[in-house]
Design a protein that fits this description.
The complex is a heterodimer of chains A (about 375) and B (about 130).
Chain A: E1 4-11, H1 22-36, E2 44-48, H2 52-56, H3 61-68, E3 76-79, H4 85-98, E4 104-112, H5 118-126, H6 131-135, H7 141-156, H8 160-163, H9 165-174, H10 188-193, E5 196-198, E6 201-202, E7 211-220, H11 221-224, E8 232-241, H12 256-269, E9 278-280, H13 286-296, H14 304-309, H15 326-329, H16 337-349, E10 363-370, E11 375-383
Parallel strand pairs in A: 2-3, 2-4, 9-10
Antiparallel strand pairs in A: 1-7, 1-8, 4-7, 5-6, 8-11, 10-11
Helix pairs in contact in A: 4-16
Chain B: H1 4-9, H2 11-16, E1 18-22, E2 28-29, E3 44-48, E4 52-61, E5 74-81, E6 86-91, E7 104-114, E8 121-129
Antiparallel strand pairs in B: 1-2, 1-3, 4-5, 4-7, 5-6, 7-8
The chains are: A alpha/beta (about 375), B mainly beta (about 130).
Chain lengths: ~375, ~130
């Protein structure tokens, strides 16, 4: 089986792209990736996206993008797993190369959220959970995470101040990044002063509604021979699905999919967690940031918020986390996020992270969740030995 | 909001909390499972859940989906029924600021939302504290 490498990455800034459509964003990110590796022509196009049908009245994104890139006749399709769509799309491209069916795969994650009003975005995001029960009861996606946030604070006696360490870290790293949405550092007081969306989740605990696209060009060992420069390998790509809704799980705080995907990824790549030089986790909310770290095994149960506030995960800390700001600071264009994460990990390992560079980064892990840890992917990237 | 046909199909589940029960091992499920999570059996029967339970956690929702704006803000609760099955439901007839987790709650049939274009009124399960 062929190894899988990342030949290039292209990103649009994350933000409010009023002058650009869903298609404009996909094309911009894709051409940026393709133009950095002109020796490769994609033989497959995979789009990761959650709700283009609601946001832009558009489906069939694979062919829609391939057409504009003048890649006619190749396999082209969309992969969907809610906010985990991007990671699942990369997984699909990885499999195609591993199986020997493709030599160069373009994976593009995209979401256009700002074109529709916020009530419609809220309804679209709730589609990550069941229409028949969760949505019918009047739950939103934020409210699901608010309930786990409340259970978590009660179980471990965690303070509001400590929980606020996640957005503070995200904004601090984002302020250094060219493509991140937020350029202004914030304080714990800013977080605690922000309005409540769904108690105890405040506006500043939540990743923003935004637009963005990220693209990766994946290449086989054979294709990589045509390239020079440092190669970054996808050493593992794993996806796992949990019991569908968090309230059906024996323990509502159990991120089983995160645990299963990360365990398999580390085993297959032959690493221990302690060998990671940095990590990108799915901090869509402060609570998902905390539960991700604890489930991955980086922090003891109930201690992630304190560890974050204590500086353990700063850019110059023991294990740099969400190095370009994560979902909170860089932004969370939902179906694109998993691709942004892997693109950022690639930039770290290739030494192209500029002001966000983690010194000597050779191996890193990304973690992308659809729903409340319902469909989770974990990728491990490393510099070629 | 769900479409009227799905709503009609689900009315017993919504009005009486009809889930499923495994014919083989007796495990009860809500939302209904088609394959038993406990024993793997595919022989599942419709079965009414208990209408009483306990409030495990709640959130006061200030921001809702478009369809629920008319009743916003409201309290969404994580309810554990007497048979251990859990669901999400709005908690009504309560003062949100004084609401304590751990209280006993019971099923009540209430209006969920109204489709202003088609005129459909959707009723469904909410929970209220036991007197």
């Amino acid at each position: 089986m062929s190894k899988v490498f990342i030949a290039s990455a292209g990103l649009t800034p994350v933000g409010e792209h009023w002058r650009k459509s869903l298609l404009d964003l996909m094309v911009e990110a894709s051409l940026s990736a393709m133009n950095q590796a002109p020796e490769l022509i994609p033989d497959r196009v995979i789009v990761g996206n959650m709700f283009s049908a609601v946001g832009s009245n558009q489906e069939q994104l694979g062919a829609y993008l391939a057409n504009q890139l003048n890649l006619i006749g190749v396999p082209a399709y969309k992969v969907e797993a809610a906010c985990g769509s991007g990671g699942a799309a990369i997984h699909n491209g990885y499999l195609a190369i591993r199986a020997g069916e493709s030599e160069a795969v373009l994976v593009c994650g995209v979401e256009k959220m700002k074109d529709i009003d916020v009530g419609k975005v809220t309804a679209a995001l709730a589609m990550a959970d069941s229409a028949e029960y969760t949505q019918f009861a009047g739950a939103t996606f934020v409210s699901l995470n608010a309930l786990t946030h409340a259970l978590y604070m009660k179980k471990y006696g965690v303070s509001k101040e400590d929980m606020a360490g996640f957005p503070v870290l995200g904004h601090r790293n984002a302020a250094l990044s060219k493509h991140a949405m937020f350029k202004k550092p914030i304080t714990v007081e800013d977080v605690l002063r922000s309005p409540i969306i769904s108690d105890p989740i405040r506006l500043m605990d939540s990743s923003p509604v935004c637009d963005g696209a990220a693209a990766l060009l994946l290449v086989s060992e054979e294709g990589a021979k045509r390239m020079d420069g440092p190669l970054v390998e996808i050493a593992a790509s794993e996806v796992a699905a949990n019991i569908f809704t968090f309230y059906e799980r024996p323990d509502p705080l159990d991120y089983l999919a995160t645990r299963a995907a990360s365990k398999r990824a580390l085993e297959k790549a032959g690493y221990k967690l302690s060998q990671m030089d940095f990590m990108e986790t799915h901090d869509a909310f402060s609570i998902t940031g905390a539960l991700a770290l604890e489930t991955l095994g980086v922090c003891k149960p109930g201690e992630a918020p304190h560890d974050v506030s204590a500086g353990r995960f700063n850019l110059d800390g023991e294990l740099p986390l969400n190095t370009f700001g994560g979902l909170k600071g860089r932004g969370h264009p939902v179906g694109a996020t998993g691709v942004y994460q892997v693109a950022e990990a690639y930039m770290q390992i290739a030494g192209r992270a500029e002001k966000n560079q983690v010194r000597g980064a050779k191996v890193g892990l990304t973690h992308n969740m659809g729903g409340v840890d319902t469909t989770t992917s974990v990728h491990i990237l490393r510099r070629e030995a | 909001m769900i479409n009227p046909v799905s709503y009609w199909r689900l009315k017993d589940r919504y009005f009486n909390l009809v889930g499923t029960k495994c014919k083989k091992c007796g495990a009860e499920w809500f939302p209904p499972m088609r394959v038993c999570r406990k024993c793997g059996s595919q022989e599942m029967l419709d079965h009414q859940m208990p209408h009483k339970g306990k409030l495990l956690a709640h959130t006061l929702m200030k921001e809702t989906s478009e369809e629920f704006k008319a009743s916003s803000p409201y309290v969404l609760g994580l309810v554990e029924l007497e048979n251990g099955q859990r669901l999400l439901a709005q908690i009504v007839d309560v003062d949100a600021t004084g609401l304590q987790d751990g209280i006993e709650v019971r099923l009540t049939l209430r209006k969920m939302a109204e489709d202003s274009k088609k005129g459909t009124i959707y009723y469904g399960f909410k929970f209220t504290p036991l007197p």
